[in-house]
Design brief:
Blueprint (H helix, E strand, L loop, with lengths): L2 E7 L3 H12 L3 E8 L6 H14 L6 E2 L15 H4 L21 H11 L4 E5 L4 H9 L3 H4 L2 E5 L15 H5 L1 H8 L5 E4 L1 H4 L3 E2 L1 H10 L3 H18 L6 E2 L1 H10 L4 E6 L1 E3 L9 E3 L8 E7 L1 H12 L4
Parallel strand pairs: 1-2, 1-4, 2-3, 4-5, 5-6, 6-12
Antiparallel strand pairs: 7-8, 9-12, 10-11
Helix pairs in contact: 1-11, 1-12, 1-13, 4-5, 5-8, 10-11
The structure holds beta-D-ribofuranose (BDR) and calcium ion (CA).
Length: 307
């Protein structure tokens, strides 16, 4: 059965990998993208999303999201990880298309109503737009089928600080609000995505099978893997966002535990996701184990089909 999907994204190298996987998987009916800051600024994220879609000849709407966190001042984009424009050393040409006139939160609220009970939302950036959609419509998350979030960490520590995963760190107040809201949430965090690691050879083989789009990912991955090496990780890059997309289409490849989650919003541990059994919120299904080989194979098999 195919799933109806919207991705909220800050493209971003692993966001590009996730998007091409979602485009290629016949089990995914990708309806739209919404954009957010994080790896890049929000205007760059919108431009990058449009560029990726046009390069893949996919015509779906892009709605531009908010450009500032819910409470914190704006945090600088992660250009040392993803490059100044978001895709390593790649120049990103100005796309032909434009974002729709609705903001991302407005668009998400409307789509969740239109596809009530059917829509899967996969945020792979900070959760700012999602929290704002909940502000606009208290029924927003109850209208979704599921939300599969790339972010956080239960036991694996952080990646942007020792305590925090980057997406949650960029807007901890939004993440805390989303976790407290009572949605059907699966969290695909560093506990699993740090283990889905692909070496340079994976992307080189992908480029052989899919010279244009696989080739683009190969070029971007070189920069991403160079960054991983600067932090002492020499076996490749973490497939964070693509793993979250696989969890939308194939939840059976992941093992989850139920946890009541909150997010620390200040101090040294800002952005840390904490399991707190005393909370009365709905439990979040936190991914704690993954069929690593199957996830890597599913991404490869699908992206390799793209011309
Ligand atoms: C997450 O942060 C970003 O750098 C990636 O795109 C991913 O969404 C990983 O922590
Ligand atoms: Ca991302």
């Amino acid at each position: 059965m195919t799933i109806k999907l919207i991705i909220d994204t800050d493209p971003g190298i692993d966001d590009a990998m996730a998007l091409f996987y979602a485009i290629a998987d016949p089990e995914v009916d990708l309806l739209a993208l919404t954009t957010v800051f994080g790896n890049v600024t929000t205007p760059q994220a919108t431009r990058n999303a449009l560029f990726l879609l046009e390069t893949a000849a996919v015509n779906i709407p892009v709605a531009e999201g908010l450009s500032k966190p819910r409470e914190l001042p704006t945090y600088p984009p992660s250009s040392h990880v993803h490059g100044a424009e978001g895709f390593g050393t790649l120049d990103v040409p100005t796309p032909q298309g434009k974002a729709v006139s609705e903001t991302a939160p407005e668009f998400l609220v409307r789509m969740a109503r239109a596809y009530k009970g059917e829509l899967v939302l996969c945020p792979i950036g900070p959760l700012t737009n999602i929290a704002a959609a909940m502000d606009l419509d208290p029924e927003f998350c109850r209208n979704l089928k599921r939300m599969v979030i790339m972010g956080g960490s239960l036991r694996a520590g952080g990646n942007i600080t020792p305590a925090a995963e980057a997406n949650i760190y960029h807007d901890p107040h939004a993440a805390d609000f989303v976790f407290s809201y009572g949605c059907n949430i699966t969290l695909v965090g560093l506990d699993v995505t740090n283990r889905v690691i692909c070496p340079r050879s994976y992307f080189a083989q992908l480029a052989e099978q899919s010279p244009k789009l696989g080739g683009l990912l190969h070029q971007m991955a070189e920069f991403y893997i160079d960054f991983y090496e600067t932090v002492g990780k020499f076996n490749g890059c973490g497939m964070h966002d693509p793993s979250a997309l696989v969890a939308c289409a194939a939840p059976n490849l992941f093992v989850t535990e139920d946890h009541h989650l909150r997010v620390i919003c200040s101090g040294e541990r800002s952005g840390e996701t904490v399991s707190d059994p005393n909370l009365s919120s709905e439990p979040v299904k936190v991914c704690v184990d993954v069929d690593i080989a199957a996830v890597k194979k599913k991404i490869f098999k699908n992206v390799a089909k793209l011309v």
